[in-house]
Write a structure and sequence with these properties.
The complex is a heterodimer.
Chain A (H helix, E strand, L loop, with lengths): L5 E4 H11 L4 E4 L7 H9 L8 E4 L3 H13 L4 E5 L1 H6 L1 H9 L4 E7 L15 H6 L9 E3 L4 H18 L2 E7 H5 L1 E4 L10 H7 L15 E2 L6 H21 L3 E4 L6 E4 L2 H16 L4 E6 L1 E3 L3 H10 L2 E6 L5 H9 L5 E5 L8 H12 L3
Parallel strand pairs in A: 2-3, 2-4, 4-5, 5-7, 6-7, 11-12, 11-14, 14-15
Antiparallel strand pairs in A: 1-8, 6-13, 10-12
Chain B lengths: L2 H4 L25 H16 L5 E5 L14 E4 L5 H11 L4 E7 H7 L1 H9 L5 E6 L2 E2 L5 E2 L18 H4 L5 H6 L4 E8 L3 H20 L3 E7 L3 H4 L3 H15 L3 E5 L14
Parallel strand pairs in B: 1-2, 1-3, 3-4, 4-8, 7-8
Antiparallel strand pairs in B: 5-6, 7-9
Helix pairs in contact in B: 2-8, 4-5
Classes of the chains: A alpha/beta, B alpha/beta.
Bound molecules: thiamine diphosphate, iron/sulfur cluster (SF4) and magnesium ion.
Chain lengths: ~350, ~270
Amino acid sequence: MKEEARLMKGNEAFAHAAIRCGADGYFGYPITPQSEVMETLQILKPWETTGMVVLQAESEVSAINMVYAGASCGKMVLTSSSSPGVSLKQEGISYIAAGELPCLILNCMRGGPGLGTIQPSQADYFQSVKGGGHGDYHMIVLAPCSVQEMADFPSLAFELAFKYRNPVLMLTDGVVGQMMEKVVLPEQKPRRTMEEVVKQCPWATTGRMGRGNSNVMTTLELVPEKMEDRNTLLQKKYKLIEENEVRVEEYHLDDAEYAMVAFGSTARICKSACEILRAEGIKVGVLRPITLFPFPKKQISDLAKKVKGFLTVEMSAGQMVEDVRLVVNGAKPVEFYGRQGGMIPTAEEIAESFKAQLLKK
Amino acid sequence: MTREEIIKPENLVYGKTKVLTDNIMHYCPGCSHGVIHKIIAEVIEEMGIQDQTVGVAPVGCSVFAYNYIDVDFQEAAHGRAPALATAIKRLMPDKYVFTYQGDGDLAAIGTAETVHACNRGENIVIFFVNNGIYGMTGGQMAPTTLEGMKTATCPYGRNTDLYGFPLRISELLERVDGTCYITRQSVHKVANILKAKKAIRKAFENSMAGKGTSVIEFVSACNTGWKMTPIKANEWMEEHMFAKYPLGDIKDTEKKHYVENNINAR
Ligand SMILES: Cc1ncc(C[n+]2csc(CCOP(=O)(O)OP(=O)(O)O)c2C)c(N)n1
Ligand code: SF4
Ligand SMILES: [Mg+2]
């Protein structure tokens, strides 16, 4: 039976969902605008019910390394933070990607660079989809736009993380983290038993447990030929992810003559802008990438054959727009509208910018 | 007597522990790391805990510890081993969990992870190899480098006005309430090796008894980094390192506050 809808913040929904998807451990460090995640977990005390470990680490560096270790044990572990904290996690994320470790990381973005602001932003797009830490690697990046998706995505994230043995980042922003909406929480799944963990992750460093040989989790390989092989395998995996895991939401694209491309909370504002423009008889639709890596290249290149032009809208100086332009490859104009530093664009602003840039009005 | 007559089980006076692999160690002849590996492996065998132990290797000369000590292992980023050990032990409290770290790893880049794991009283064992230098990267200054000691990055000798003082991290950790057992050992003589083995066993036992964090510092020789023969290095260590880092127990108590939260989580 489905539970009744409840009213809560995106961050709170994320915390509930983490427990309910059967996670084994959360490791975090407070930072606005996502501190409610750990606060909610501490109030819910899952160690008394599901047995999930919740630990406030001494830093984001430490927290992500705890995630590395937990994931190396085959456990379902996660962390959450916001932009400055996620910068600190980059070393650990690179190791996690190199070790091909399944885990979940939430970045509830705020404005930067530097200490920046505690207001929402989407300026960590490059960091999230292009690497961020050292080396050639990718995380799978999911971009929730509602409190409901904050509750639904952790389970999907862990499914993908274990399927591909890859870190999954949920990239959201202060708007989604802080706003209250109706949400139906997912059902409680049981945590896996140790036997199930060992079966699912025969590579895990659980102690030998009668295995007869030792498992080692390392990302070190001094022989360059072997290191290149490891890299090649990683790239193959990313290719497979690109082929199979693209997710988008399409809004009024069927008859659209123009398309807006936006993710997260900005996509919702674009929908309102779309309504304003449609009321004026301008046929606009919205493409919302739900996965930022893998990026919806095919969907966008198909659209490029259909529409007269694109407007990419972001709370940044223009980051995802570069990927849209790469795909469209000059076939149609790709314009950009953005606000920065914690400013949120209004639907009216977006509609005006659309008309000015694409209709030259 | 023939060879076959001599090689019989009843004639065995000493054997290599099976918790040590047959891989050829990459350590310089005279280095303390190999001996420390061996006695940790011996204690793991004697306690019968090979299948219940997870080790965490550092970045430093002992980065390949997992090639020699035959238990499940995780390789940490430089300095982060105590954070890894924290998570492993919290998620699997029935395992023996240890870190193995050099002085650069533990006392420089990983100081925060070390102090806070100890302060939370994580039920882990920290093996701390203090050779007063960064061995792996070619002999640069460590926080533990002695006053006046020459290294690649203080070629005229460590000047405390410029670079501060040799850091006595074990004395610092003694003040941290989560630690239960802190001892400084060495492995340059048989008598010391035997003492060190006892300490290792006690530390593992503490961790399973839930007493808190145990730290064993091994004052060690890096003859290559120190640019000395192995024998000279050991003499120099006795004369100079032991003066700053005296051997013996520094703390041996139950930790003051038990960590209640999460400790029984499985
Ligand atoms: C983040 C990072 N910084 C620097 C290094 C380079 N590095 C490798 S080992 C090491 C020092 C090791 O010294 P120590 O911990 O004393 O170990 P030893 O080799 O002496 O046993 C350094 C600085 C690294 N691998 N990672
Ligand atoms: S450089 Fe020093 S610490 Fe490293 S193996 Fe050689 S003697 Fe040992
Ligand atoms: Mg050293």
